[in-house]
Amino acid sequence: MRRPILERPGRQRQRGAVLYVALVLLILLALIGVTGMQVASLQERMTGAYLAANRAFQNAESLARQQENDILHALGPGSGSFNADQERCDPSFDPAAWSEAIDIAALREVRTRRIDQCSPGGGGLGQGVRPLSENTDLTYQISAFAADVQPSDATNPPTASARVVVDTVYLP
Question: Domain Type 4 fimbrial biogenesis protein PilX N-terminal, which positions (predicted)?
Answer without folding.
Answer: 15-62
